[in-house]
Amino acid sequence: MPPRTLISSGTVWEKKYGYSRAVAVGNLVFVAGTTAVDEHGTVMGRDNPYEQAMFIYRKIERALQQAGSSLEDVVRVRTFVTDIARWEEVARAQGEIFAAIRPAATLVEVSALLNPELLVEIEVDAVKG
Predict the structure, then answer these.
(1) SS3 107
(2) Nearest residue to 123 (alpha-carbon basis) of 36, 53, 30
(3) pLDDT surpassing 80 at residue 12
(4) How far apart are CA 59 and CA 67, in angstroms?
(5) What is the pLDDT of residue 108?
(6) In whole angstroms, what is the distance from residue 88 CA to residue 126 CA?
(7) Given pLDDT bands bounded at 50, 70 and 90, which one contains residue 11?
(8) Is the overall model pTM greater than 0.85, yes or no?
(9) How far apart are the C-alpha atoms of 69 and 59, rounded to whole Å?
(10) Predicted local distance difference test score (pLDDT) of residue 40
């Protein structure tokens, strides 16, 4: 197996709960479920699924860059929303980010995320190069 590169955003949760923001193995990059929380634990885009999704995509982009990848390398997107009635707001953000890339994508409703102010969680897989 090729060596694993662990990408960290430096939050306390990663070490405490045993996960990485992203893991790169060979030319594959797996970005963990990502929410609209900044480095200080502040929820961004309160009550706005579109703003949360855009914040998340920028956070994902930074993790991909740290792994030597980019949004252009994304092949799969999994999106979890707490209110399916607002799916179009989240899908609009995805469409703006991935209009030319068009990865395989899934969007599902979940009963809750860790914080009730979080409306969206997104994870992606990428193939470098």
Answers:
(1) strand
(2) 30
(3) no
(4) 13
(5) 98
(6) 24
(7) confident
(8) yes
(9) 13
(10) 85
